[in-house]
Design brief:
Layout (H helix, E strand, L loop, with lengths): L8 H4 L19 H19 L5 E8 L5 E4 L5 E2 L5 H13 L8 E3 L20 E3 H10 L3 H10 L3 H10 L11 H9 L8 H11 L2 H8 L4 H4 L5 E2 L1 H12 L6 H11 L19 E8 L2 E9 L5 E9 L5 H21 L7 E4 L1
Parallel strand pairs: 2-10
Antiparallel strand pairs: 1-2, 1-9, 3-6, 4-5, 7-8, 8-9
């Protein structure tokens, strides 16, 4: 009999398939009042962490073995920023699984898709191209916007990505833009023609407050309440759960996806920030002015795993404060799931 496909994700972290501890290893199951007390304490901690921001905080965590879910503002819409790239990756892997694409296929670096930073310089080279696998690495590990928009175009555009997510039964998450146009909206500009760099520079010259907002890392409150390119923490949690359970991709694609995410280079002070050294984490960050996000899967010492999503928006206290909120929430969830392993299946939330 073959192993469940969800177990293949363990290989993505370079882990051996050891049997999970039985209930007896942890003593008798907690009494109902103790369980309720543990849940209440976790949710109170989430609420306390939220006070570190002058904006809005959303947190959702799930035990991937029992399905137990705890959340704070779990049904509130937040700008995904670069966290939307996990949905882009899922759509690309679905094309690979369908035989319409290969990891070693080369995609042209169309100059029209270049934005700023990262590998933007490569797009001016005649005939420049990169493999799908390398573009996925750049997108998920370095959050490269240029690589992302090449993949968004190959994925069939934002609507195709949203359709892929909806087909998994995930609601409350929508992709409406590639990264360049998401950034245009975040900046509050409406370009007619020209390159991204030309349009962004012109907007900054015309409105010096854009540069001030960047320097001070202040939110664009109008952008933060737009419905486009948003997700609830619970919807993002549902998407990560579908990935981890092998319901979205083949076993090989699931393994490659989590292997890439396990080497994420951004947001080292976020989900990873307060976890014990050596903890296996696969995650993807998202950052914009006043926005700080991280979404991922964490492995506990006994082999069990949990998913965590933390979104922060409308925040003017800066990235250090946002990173701390994400790190604190992730550590609280780690301790909760680690020290109370025999828990009933259920859901709880505040807000």
């Amino acid at each position: 009999m073959s192993l469940p496909r969800s177990l293949s994700v363990l290989a993505a972290f370079g882990l051996f398939l050891a049997p999970l501890p039985g209930a007896d290893a942890f003593g008798p199951p907690p009494k109902p009042l103790l369980q309720q007390g543990a849940e209440a304490k976790l949710l109170a901690e989430f609420a306390r962490f939220a006070t570190l921001s002058d904006g809005t905080v959303g947190i959702a965590v799930r035990d991937l073995q029992t399905g137990e879910t705890q959340s704070y503002n779990g049904d509130t819409l937040f700008p995904m920023a670069s966290a939307y790239k996990v949905a882009v990756a899922g759509r690309i892997f679905s094309l690979i699984d369908a035989g319409a694409l290969r990891l070693d296929d080369k995609l042209a670096l169309d100059p029209a898709l270049a934005s700023e930073g990262g590998i933007a310089w490569m797009f001016s080279r005649p005939g420049a191209s990169l493999s799908v696998d390398r573009l996925l690495e750049l997108m998920l590990q370095k959050s490269d916007n240029n690589a992302t928009d090449v993949l968004v175009a190959r994925a069939g555009g934002p609507q195709a990505i949203t359709a892929f997510v909806n087909k998994l039964g995930v609601t409350g998450l929508r992709v409406d833009s590639d990264t360049a146009h998401l950034l245009y909206r975040a900046m509050g500009i409406h370009p007619q023609s020209g390159t991204f760099r030309q349009n962004a520079d012109a907007a900054r010259r015309a409105n010096p407050q854009l540069a001030v907002r960047d320097i001070r890392d202040l939110p664009n409150l109008a952008f933060a309440i737009e419905p486009e390119d948003t997700s609830t923490p619970t919807a993002m949690l549902d998407l990560m759960t579908a990935y981890e359970e092998g319901r979205a991709m083949s076993a090989a694609s699931t393994q490659r996806f989590f292997t890439i995410m396990a080497h994420c280079e951004t947001g080292k002070a976020r989900i990873r920030g307060m976890l014990p050294p050596g903890t296996a984490v696969a995650h993807k960050t998202g950052s914009l002015n006043g926005v700080g996000n991280d979404v991922g899967v964490v492995r506990l010492p006994d082999g069990r795993r949990f998913a965590v999503v933390v979104f922060v928006m409308k925040d003017s206290k800066g990235h250090v404060s946002r990173d701390r909120i994400i790190a604190e929430a992730s550590r609280a969830a780690y301790d909760y799931f680690l020290y109370a392993p025999d828990r009933a299946h259920g859901r709880a939330h505040i807000g």
